[in-house]
Sequence to fold (311 residues):
Amino acid sequence: MPLVSEPISVERDAPIPTWFGVGGRADRLARPATIDELRRCAESDPALRVLGDGANLLVDDGGVGELVVVLGGEFAAVRWEEEKAQIAKRKAQTVLVGAAVKLPKLIVEAGRRGLGGLEGLGGIPASVGGAAVMNAGGRFGQIGDAVARVHAVDRSGGLHAIERDEIEFGYRRSGLDGLILTSVELRLTPGDPAALRERLRDVMAYKKSTQPLADRSAGCAFRNPTLTRDLEGIGRRGERVSAGRLIDRAGCKGLRVGGAEVSPAHGNFLVAHAGGAARDVIALMEQVRRRVADAFGVALEREVVVWSRES
Ligand code: EPU
Fold:
């Protein structure tokens, strides 16, 4: 038998940090810092899983067997180069952002440099790569609106540059799921730093007043559904409505399974308390789905990504 070499240094039985703060571990975890290292990871395990900021992820208590990849090094850098000349001309600027860059930090740094367009995404914890793949956003905008091009590696190690008009951005989707994003080119527009800061503050204030941002959760657990019939007090047929409102109206706020609870602040936030387990959150999701189906005939779909040995 030929010897199979390890891709790069691989950690065994490594924790997978997520915002839920519960769940299992990775049998194998690698931290590629360059495209070459990432390609070697893909070659060694084409089924690898990419861990972004762990903000929209629930790992089952049994953990996962595939190689888990945490991008670092060159994937955590931002190239602002043309900035001054472009801003002086008051032109939009394309900034090349590594997939591992944290979205909240990027928004603040861009604003400080007088570059706007991302403030509506304030309060969304994510890596830029993860945010692009799921077209993260909310009522104040979605990241897809600012994406000019993405760069990615496929599971055979092939390199891709994908133009905006080839990307199928939709509600919390991009169609880029199978790819491993390495960087994202974002089109930002010049703006007054003080005004950008003010806008970001407004967005954050709305989030803080409606969402339990300090609790351990993955943000919204379910996608906002499109109604297939009119629902009194909720919305009309064809309208996309708040899953949080449906969960709230179905009387689920405060519902608990073990250490998991439906947040009393926002129905679509499932919170994991100390001592909770991933199976509590999964069971709670099921209960919420059932109650909303019984109350309104609406089938909620998960927004949170679940990793397990089976999926
Ligand atoms: N509402 C309730 N009860 C609740 C929650 C909401 O009655 O428990 C009502 C609110 O009062 C409001 C309406 O429902 O009138 C909409 O609520 P909200 O503004 O919170 O928006 P949402 O549709 O529930 C979406 C995104 C959030 C994003 C917010 C704000 C989804 C699944 N959710 O929530 O995104 O932060 O808009 O922009 O698309 C996420 O994706 O993880 C997430 C948190």
Q: What stands out?
A: The chain is about 25% helix and 25% strand.
